[in-house]
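User: quick one - fold this with 2,5-dideoxy-2,5-imino-D-mannitol bound?
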Amino acid sequence: MTSQTSSDVENPTHAPLLDDDYGYVPSLDASDQPSQPQETNRQPSKPVLLLISGLLAIGLLVALIVGNVRIETHDNDAPLPERRDPIEQGVSEKSFGLPPNVSSFSWTDDMLSWQMPAFHFTPGKNWMNDPNGPVFYKGWYHLFYQYSPAAPVWGLIVWGHAVSRDMVHWRHLPIAMETDKWYDVNGVWTGSTTILPNNELVVLYTGSTNESVQVQNLAYPANPSDPLLVNWVKDPANPVLVPPKWINIKDFRDPTTAWLTPEGRWRMVIGTKVNRTGIAILYDTDDFKSYDLLDTKLHQVDGTGMWECVDFFPVSKNESGGLDTGVIGPGIKHVLKASMDDDRCDYYAIGDYNPKTGTWVPDNPKIDVGIGLRYDYGIYYASKTFYDQNKERRILWSWIKETDSESSDIKKGWASLMAVPRTVALDPLTGSNLLQWPIEELENIRSNLNEFNEVKLEPGSLVPLNVGPTSQLDIMVEFELDKKLTDSLLPLKAGSVPYNCAGHGGAGVRDALGPFGVLVLANKNLTEHTPAYFYIVKGKKGELDTFFCIDQSRSSIAKDVDKSIYGSTVPVLEGEKLSMRILVDHSIVEGYAQGGRSCITSRVYPTEAINDDAQIFLFNNATSITVTASLKTWQMGVSSTNGSGWVWIGPSLILVVVFFFVVWTWQNQRNNRS
Ligand code: DQQ
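Assistant: Sure. Structure tokens for the protein plus 2,5-dideoxy-2,5-imino-D-mannitol:
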């Protein structure tokens, strides 16, 4: 298994052209061709000639395979398209702002190029935000995304497009939908795909019109027999939906995947707000062209502001697999998720859906949408699920933004990426939260397992782990605590401030039962490090509350990056060990606690703890307990084929054989002549 380095990513080699099977072949331009041996007066000897031709042939083979790894489709040097004014503001532009007067760090090219992830999806250049219309179609996973092809800042948004066999190795395709109609000239915004019973696809997306009105538009593949779905047609009937009178023309966006109602009509959700109330409204349609707005709202929550990228899907109480969007019946709960424009976080709640009335009620109104549970307690926004009929699971995609300065984004030439795709299902043990877990396909890019068993961590200890390079890691760790000790500790005093990750000073603040965990992306003298940790507090009634946190406050010596501390409580059931899984992929640290009951995604921008200078440690900063840790780590790479790359091995081998044959014949002829 080869791992993909950031320089592979920074220097993509080929642009795709058409191929017989799927519409595309990789092309080699002149600069990619191996150079020919120069004619000189001295004849090379036969073994030398064979060695050179062998190397050339291998080079050709490698070039063909590697050429499929990251294929860029956009020319960064092309003149910027004229921006139409006014560009719609306030929808997805960079929301991370640094306090005034923060000094800029002198970022070097090496530091910036290290930040590019290896196994998280990114278009490689320019700006990306929300995932759009994910679908599995004719053997390929399709991911569309909000893309600003002109610059690494939000602007005139189109639908970028990539395909994959496994959602790990990607093949970049041309832009699927451009801003070429009056009804989307200010942006082809977020939308979803629906698979019709005859396996045809339809896409509904929000267009920002020439007057910046948010409307819904219909599109479908130009050639449904093309598994890569390269070309898309927009329906002449567009826009198929305009904002109803009682909705502000700029608060009507992001249609969901539609599902069939028991009456046989298609139903979908759109997010909106009225004053400060976030609302999910429902439309029914027979043909995706004319729609009936339901009188009832699916759901609304006062004080939550605009609901973007609403998602609505069933989960099974008993089965671990996923369910198609329209499934209803006993043993099924429904998840309603909305992305809160106010705080840029994705909130969900679990509840019951009544298809007759078109309403949904949360199980626990105290943790309703926008005020309770989050998919992720770090940087995770505008997510969208789809039902993967290929493996009967529900997959969650989400946008991870940058939390550095815009000038750094411009210098590095790209901004944002997708979190790794996660399976999402109801937690069968609690019934009150979801479980999110990286898709199993990611395990195929693990290598170099290191295992550490029962490492005793005394209070105040720090244990370096020798696991090789640490910029691309999958870490799974379990902690055991001495139960007698936790029992003997006194509960929190009445009136003391309840713990939360952000408000209590991070991993450096010591208490009886925490923090303990893993330090990643740490340099030797620990001037830079990112701790992922548990922190246990004993509640007033003696109950233990466990928090899962990631502390970015010492992740970088640079001042012009986010230093927040993220986290939340995580349910831990009787008899369970504490467990966390941490994915490190250069500037992303993605954490999952207790099998995915609580997740945190963070962006870190170290200046020294990069490349070979980054290490990992176990630590225990608790003052009263010894913790026993057992862990496994793997290097994470992206193998040099992207699912479709193997297609080229056959032809490449034939080329190699032909090459050798020609050289051999030519050499023989020369020998015969002399
Ligand atoms: N991003 C899109 C909108 C959506 C927002 C525009 C969420 O459709 O509401 O890029 O990030």
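One thing worth noting: The first helix runs from residue 6 to 10.
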